[in-house]
Known about the structure:
Low-confidence stretches: none
Oligomer: single chain
Distance between the termini: 8 Å
Number of helices: 3
Structural class: alpha+beta
Shape: elongated
Number of strands: 4
Radius of gyration: 16 Å
Mean pLDDT: 84
Number of domains: 1
Strand content: 15-25%
Amino acid sequence: MYSVATAKFFSALGIEDFPVFALVAEGSLGVLTCLRWPSAQYVKMLEANARSFDIATPIGAFHFATFLCLLATEYADEVGRKLEEVKGDFIRKYKNSDPSLRWNMKQQI
Length: 109
């Protein structure tokens, strides 16, 4: 649910069609999911062929750490650029008390 809320939050900021990754975990086992939203109207959760990790094993922990490094090197800069692109519009909306920035539980669903 938090990953959908993150996608909706990005959409409210004006960032759309950008991947949001989530880890669904139980104990030491985790499965990665990815969300994309081509518009503010709906969110696609991609779970087919999802990558799973068992961080209780050294190789599982290594593979998960490798994925986190990939996120840091491939996606962190891109999300930073996208946030910079919408920064001016966000500040304008904030100063004008735009209703689209009134975040509530209904927007998360």
